[in-house]
Amino acid sequence: MRLKAFSKSLSFLLLLLSSQTAFSNKLAQAQTQVSPTTTTKLICPAQLGTSIDTVINRPIFSRVRWGILVQPLSSGQTLYAREAQKYFTPASNAKLLTTAAALQQLGANFRIRTSIYQDANGILRVVGRGDPSFNDTQLQALAKQLQQKGITQIKRLIADDSYIQGDIINPTWEWEDVQSDYGAPVNSFILNENVFSLKFVPQAVGKISQIMWDDGNEAQRWLTINQSITVAENQPSYINVTRDLTGRVLRIQGQVAANSQPYLVNLPVVDPSNYFLRRFRTALATEKISLGQTLVFTGGTNQQELAAVESPPLSELLMETNQNSNNLYAEALLRALAFQQPRVQNKSTVDIGLEALKASLTKLGVNSANYVLVDGSGLSRRDLVTPEAFVQTLRLMAKTPAASVYRASLPVAGKSGTLISRFRGTPAEGIVQAKTGTLTGVVSLSGYVNAPKYEPLVFSIIVNQSEQPASVIRQAMDEIVVFLAQLQRC
């Protein structure tokens, strides 16, 4: 999820090349507890429209564009609608469409396999297939399997990145996004979510903070200009990292409070395939396997499989995608949709995946005229979706055999994921499962409500063109959802 305002006090130099480097802080802000100013009085369906209008017609929202649709889960009957058939920028609500299509097409038990093959000349090939969950533990497992096969030396290792073709960064994403951990690149090789970490350790007040790298190999690849300083204990900590267009220079500004814990910053890698190879060399050395030449190459013949690891099942990948609004997972799943489709010359894996997504949702019954997607995560501002598309998808997915898996992937109000600190102490706590979304000027929330005095509901609420803080919009949305939780038959 992008551009969620930081929960810490941040002071940025907003230059063209600025990057937002503390995604964990953004997520915390997105989860800031909201206490809707509503009563626990039950509401009749005939009162719902007036109640919602009272919220969205407040003067502070006079320039805000609302899209809302509320329907019973069992039917297409409309309980409330406002511009429900108009296009909106959906932010991370787009993940609802990506994950629905992936579950329908690939199945809950689908896994992504990473393999190492040996050809007739003794050359080893590691084949990545875009597993977003692949990390150093799995990398070490591959090295261990090779050691158990009696391999002590690899003269040549090829990283085959042919599975995913096209740009590793969506060209419609904004520059600040691709500079940040939530906009990490996606290709055939994904390791540690394609980010590396820096820690800034405070020194004496007035002194430059110390940088600690989690990977010494990465430290050697960057020219670092560190202008961050240590300030008094009662001052806030913040770090701003800018990366130049060459991808070789890191300029660091900001401050770290004296005697505080090290300040963690995650940054996206520039070249995922070579990053994978550098980390693999280290893993192989741990197993006393020497590695000679490495090469990134597209295509070739895979013969004898020597080692392999698999991702968790798709049901678990969906949990990370929707519960934590993980952009990289959503983009990897979009590309996975292309695996079972015919390869088309000069067509990117993303484009093939988007076609497969559309075909899958059309088969489900979702009107394809109700959405236009250019990515799988909702990070692009060129994504356009109607509230009706989300309600259709949610309602139709609830009728499929995979309904429970899909629904379990969504955050629960006051309990989990990006809703863990919202709706606490309200009638909606624990009975709402919904996907959040935030961009600058955009807030969205779509999901299910198990109203105890009424039948289950599906809803989508999207706000665009807002100058209000996201927290103000979220509180208003939460008031509306609490109304839904208080519905009763009258």
Automatic annotation (TrEMBL):
Species the sequence originates in: Amazonocrinis nigriterrae CENA67
Keyword Transcription: no
Secretion signal, residue range per the UniProt entry: 1-24
Encoding gene per record: dacB
GO MF term set: serine-type D-Ala-D-Ala carboxypeptidase activity
Protein name, per record: D-alanyl-D-alanine carboxypeptidase/D-alanyl-D-alanine-endopeptidase
Enzyme class: hydrolase
Domain of life per record: Bacteria
Family per record: Belongs to the peptidase S13 family.
Record key words, sorted: Carboxypeptidase, Hydrolase, Protease, Signal
